[in-house]
């Protein structure tokens, strides 16, 4: 059973640029959630994707967008990067069925630095 | 007010000590609760779920008090390897959306 993998692990961008982060979900999982974790803070929910559609969104502006693909992998896109976007971006997958979702499995994260 | 609040610490304790972390939540609709452990520069990993009846897993005991909207984690006989950040987590439904507290940092010293 493969776990959740994310790429890239680290990247540096400058203000105004755009970034795409990628996530492969754990085998057997159909839902992907994205979280932003700033230094010294707990992860904050960005959004969740289920069946290739957004299934819930946190308090993040529209320049944060995502995709889920038929193989359940996902992308997080951030446009017009700001300094405050510097954070660890965590992807988590789970299986969502008729009885609810099972426990999330997190990837190791993508650490974004915006200069 | 944050939906899930924790004392960020740090808690510095000697090996063998018993340490307790507390957490409060503001949304009474929160359904499920967990404690996650996060090592430095790593992803969060599930430590244990929290049940109203209280539950124990080895040296770790978790409690949930829905009337007071309060969650706790007790670690007995602390080990050096327990040093990490402990995240209190709630969910509003079974959708997988987790609401994390800020985390409480524990440093166990020899």
User: What is the residue-mean pLDDT of chain A, rounded to a whole number?
Assistant: 93
Strand content of chain A: over 45%
Q: SSE order of chain A, as H and E?
A: EEEEEEEEEEEEE
The total count of helices of chain B amounts to 0
Q: What kind of oligomer do you see?
A: heterodimer
Summarize the structure.
Chain A is mostly beta strands and 115 residues long. Chain A is 0% helix and 53% strand.
Protein architecture, described:
- The complex is a heterodimer of chains A (115) and B (110).
- Chain A has strands at residues 5-7, 10-13, 19-24, 31-37, 44-50, 53-57, 64-68, 74-78, 87-94, 96-97, 100-101, 105-106, 110-114.
- Chain A is an all-beta fold.
- The radius of gyration of chain A is 13 Å and the shape is globular.
- The model of chain A has no long low-confidence stretch (mean pLDDT 93).
- Chain B is mostly beta strands and 110 residues long.
- The mean pLDDT of chain B is 91.
- In chain B, strand 7 (60-65) and strand 8 form a beta hairpin.
- Chain B has strands at residues 4-6, 11-14, 19-25, 32-38, 44-50, 55-57, 60-65, 70-75, 84-91, 98-100, 104-109.
- Chain B has no helices and eleven strands.
- In chain B, strands 2, 4, 5, 9, 10 and 11 form a six-stranded mixed sheet that branches. In chain B, strands 1-3-8-7-6 form a five-stranded antiparallel sheet, with no helix packed on it.
- At the A-B interface, strand 4, strand 5, strand 9 and strand 11 of A face strand 5 and strand 10 of B.
Features:
heterodimer; A: 115 residues; mainly beta; 7-stranded mixed β-sheet; 4-stranded antiparallel β-sheet; B: 110 residues; 6-stranded mixed β-sheet
Walk me through the topology.
The complex is a heterodimer of chains A (115) and B (110).
Chain A: E1 5-7, E2 10-13, E3 19-24, E4 31-37, E5 44-50, E6 53-57, E7 64-68, E8 74-78, E9 87-94, E10 96-97, E11 100-101, E12 105-106, E13 110-114
Parallel strand pairs in A: 2-13
Antiparallel strand pairs in A: 1-3, 3-8, 4-5, 4-9, 5-6, 7-8, 9-12, 9-13, 10-11
Chain B: E1 4-6, E2 11-14, E3 19-25, E4 32-38, E5 44-50, E6 55-57, E7 60-65, E8 70-75, E9 84-91, E10 98-100, E11 104-109
Parallel strand pairs in B: 2-11
Antiparallel strand pairs in B: 1-3, 3-8, 4-5, 4-9, 6-7, 7-8, 9-10, 9-11
């Amino acid at each position: 059973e493969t776990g959740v993998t994310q790429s890239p692990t680290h990247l540096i961008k400058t203000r105004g640029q755009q970034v795409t982060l990628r996530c492969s979900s754990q085998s057997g999982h159909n839902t992907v959630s994205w979280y932003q974790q700033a230094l010294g803070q707990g992860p904050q929910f960005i959004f969740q994707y289920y069946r290739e559609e957004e299934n819930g969104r946190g308090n993040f502006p529209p320049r944060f967008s995502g995709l889920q693909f038929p193989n359940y992998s996902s992308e997080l896109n951030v446009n017009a990067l700001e300094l405050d976007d510097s954070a660890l971006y965590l992807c988590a997958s789970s299986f969502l069925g008729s009885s609810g979702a099972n426990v999330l499995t997190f990837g190791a994260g993508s650490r974004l630095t915006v200069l | 007010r944050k939906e899930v609040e924790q004392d960020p610490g740090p808690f510095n304790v000697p090996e063998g000590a018993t340490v307790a972390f507390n957490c409060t939540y503001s949304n009474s609709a929160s359904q499920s609760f967990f404690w996650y452990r996060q090592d430095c520069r790593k992803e969060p990993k599930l430590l244990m779920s929290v049940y109203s009846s209280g539950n124990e897993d080895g040296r770790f005991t978790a409690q949930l008090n829905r009337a007071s909207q309060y969650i706790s984690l007790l670690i007995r006989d602390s080990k050096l390897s327990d040093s990490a950040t402990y995240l209190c987590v709630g969910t509003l439904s079974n959708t997988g959306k987790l609401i994390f507290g800020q985390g409480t940092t524990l440093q166990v010293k020899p």
